[in-house]
Specification:
single chain, alpha/beta, six-stranded parallel β-sheet, two-stranded antiparallel sheet, 9 helices, globular
Length: 236
């Protein structure tokens, strides 16, 4: 194990419908390589039956920023899929964040939301209630290359996502001031590579994995090695 005295740690931010549980195998892989990592649970992932005005993107960003500030150590912040949106909002101005990594993530620009970033209309936020159900056919859209046992375990833990989290536009964009990288998932059936490309072009460096949407479950070791490669180059 190499000397990592001055190396950053990782903060891993999950995507829609998931929780911190989805990072467990990756955390173990990072730990085996001598790297510490941390997670959060985003409040926009809500229990079955939740309704009305629910937590949104800004609530998620608050939780991420509180974790960044509480850790108080140099961090590489990793946002997977939707998780890239609250990371984009939360990390702006955070002194300890040395690098952002978007894994098939939404590197939104100021004024964009998940609902508008590909040309959709911005809804009146005062009217946005309820949830967005889990993606249709998640076996294929989310987990097309995940081994069956891990896929079934993940499917059993997915929960609804608040509609407000997809509707609220960011008013900060941390990738404009913090060095960042993008991991394009080349076999992604949820956010295909052509949709990842505009986000990747906003970051400093683009990497590729031949994975589906969720490499943290399908290519755990490869993703761990790639994140460490990126972290070693941060200069933190």
């Amino acid at each position: 194990m190499s000397d990592r005295t001055n190396s950053p740690e990782f903060l891993l931010v999950h995507g829609a419908w998931h929780g911190s549980w989805c990072w467990l195998e990756l955390q173990e892989a990072l730990a085996e390589r001598g790297w510490a990592s941390h997670t959060v649970d985003l409040p926009s992932v809500v229990p079955e039956g939740a309704h009305g005005k629910l937590p949104g993107l800004f609530d998620d960003a608050r939780v991420v920023r509180e974790k960044i500030d509480a850790l108080g150590t140099p961090l590489v912040v990793v946002g997977h899929s939707y998780g890239g949106a609250p990371v984009t909002q939360a990390a702006e101005g955070a002194a300890h964040v040395s690098h952002l990594v978007y894994v098939a993530g939404f590197a939104l620009a100021v004024g964009e939301s998940l609902m508008t970033c590909f040309g959709g209309d911005q809804p009146d936020l005062a009217t946005v209630e309820g949830v967005i159900p889990v993606r249709e056919d998640p076996e294929t859209t989310l987990y097309n290359d995940v081994p069956e046992d891990k896929r079934d375990a993940a499917l059993s833990r997915l929960l609804p996502q608040s509609a407000l989290s997809f509707a609220e536009p960011v008013d900060r964009a941390a990738w404009t001031s913090i060095p960042s990288s993008y991991v394009v998932c080349d076999d992604d059936r949820s956010l295909p590579p052509e949709y990842q490309k505009p986000f990747a072009e906003r970051t400093g460096t683009t990497f590729h994995l031949p994975s589906g949407h969720t490499p943290l479950l399908s290519m755990t070791d490869d993703l761990a090695d790639l994140l460490i490669h990126i972290a070693r180059g941060t200069g933190a």
